[in-house]
Amino acid sequence: MSSSQIIEQIENSQLKENVPSFNVGDTVVVATAIIEGKKRRIQKFEGTVVKKTGTRIRESFTVRRIIDKIGVEKTFLLHSPLVESVLVIKEGIARRARLHYLRDRVGAKANRMKAKEKQIIAS
Amino acid sequence: MKKFFIGKKIGMTQLVNEEGLVTPVTVLQAEPCVVVDLHEVEGEFATVVLGTGEVKDKKLNKPRRGFFEKKGVSAKKYLKGFRVSNGNDYVVGAEITADIFNVDEKVTVRAKTIGRGFTGTIKRHNFSRGPMAHGSKSHRIPGSIGAGTTPGRVYKGVRMAGHYGDAFVTIKNLAVVKIDSENKLIFVAGAVPGKSGFVEIFS
Q: A82, B19: Cβ pair inside 8 Å?
């Protein structure tokens, strides 16, 4: 077995099953587990997916939203055991892979993506 | 007892544990090493020569082939002697596996860094560069290498351009994160010098 195959095998063995599929531009709600001592609670973060990067166990995505007029971006490891679920609220139309141009937007238009005609409404 | 082993660097990846913590690791292949030779200096020390890696017969010259035949072990690509206080624990032909190491143990690794060829002082010694514009002609030159008439010569050891890399480097205190005896792999936290190749591991 070649070196890259061994690395691939190690990385594939750590993958989670049933990873949600979503694309750049979608509006998602990410539920992450927060462990405070022995307590374990779920925190949700809603926003636009602006970036997806990496493959296999290294795959991560960044979600952006405006909180109190300040842009906040959070990056999650897709296969982390702390990422409980990623729920797609709205599918957006993104014409590029990285939506860094949203950072330059101000006001009401910030983070707003054109939605696809068929919308998935989830609570 | 001092432990030593020869592994082979495969590459880097990351391990994610149940708490979501990510550890960057270097994966080392750990095929069993064979004790090829044993030199003993009575009452002082002994040198244990470990060998690993397959080598084609046609790649061996006569003295080397003769050496392995005399010792009664199959030819190895990489040999390394380790000094121990007492050689009684070792027998020529015995195999040493990666299981001698434990998880969370701190190890020292020694490997050859990536060769960079003949490089200037900026890359080799982290010198600063001169201005690229405003009429400056001192872009990447080393600058002064010493005083004038006194001493009238360049001191020994002045850092200059030259060959960089392709030299052995030792890294201490790398933690063993995981040992996969089934697939013969050792996972070491952090980076190990050089490209994929033989790595000496001590603890």
A: yes
State which residue of chain B sits closest to A36, comparing Cα positions.
B19
pLDDT bucket at A123, cuts 50 / 70 / 90: very low
Q: Which contacts of B174-177 are long-range, i.e. CB under 8 A and separated by 24 or more positions?
A: B174/B106, B174/B107, B174/B108, B174/B109, B175/B104, B175/B105, B175/B106, B175/B107, B176/B101, B176/B102, B176/B103, B176/B104, B176/B105, B176/B106, B176/B107, B177/B15, B177/B23, B177/B25, B177/B103
A4 touches chain B (CB under 8 A): yes
CB contact under 8 A, B16 and A4: no
Judged on CB neighbours under 10 Å (0-12, 13-18, 19+), A83 is: buried
Residue A112 in this model has a pLDDT that exceeds 70: no
Task: Write the ipTM.
Answer: 0.75
Query: Over 90: is that where the pLDDT of A111 sits?
Result: no
Taken in order B80, B84, B86, B90, the sign of the CA dihedral is negative
Q: Is the pLDDT of residue B43 over 90?
A: no
pTM of the model: 0.81
- pLDDT for A19 equals 86
Q: What is the DSSP string of chain B?
A: ---EEEEEEEEEEEEE-TTS-EEEEEEEE-PPEEEEEEEEETTTEEEEEEEEEE--GGG--HHHHHHHHHHTS--EEEEEEEEES-GGG--TT-EE-GGGS-TT-EEEEEEEPPP-EEE-HHHHH-PPPPPSSTT---SS-----S-STTT-SPPTT---SEEES-SEEEEEEEEEEEEETTTTEEEEES--SSSSSEEEEE-
Q: Where are the alpha helices (DSSP H) in chain A?
A: 3-13
